[in-house]
Amino acid sequence: MNQDKAYYQNLLRHVEYTQLETVGELLQIELAIYDIRKFLQEMRQIDEYDNPRLDNLKLGLRQLRKEHEILSHEIGDLELDISHAKFMIDILSRDKDDE
């Protein structure tokens, strides 16, 4: 049982670390999206929004939004893994206390 509990404790630490890294990436993407949207808004105000040179920027914004969606789903999956590991650690701790 101790090996099982140690496995889940190691898994929990690994998944929590991965979650922190993923949240960091997500925050960087959100900041980039904010900066691009702010710049595009400024271009609208000076009537340069339809400028063909901004097409790559708009494409990049779409790609960042897709990446944001993917990372958001990954964070949800990681939260499930964390909940599962904590649950198993709790169950294995109870089994040890019952003995």
TrEMBL record:
The species this protein was found in: Spirosoma validum
UniProt entry keywords in alphabetical sequence: Coiled coil
Species classification: Bacteria, Pseudomonadati, Bacteroidota, Cytophagia, Cytophagales
Coiled coil (residue ranges): 54-81
Protein name: Coil containing protein
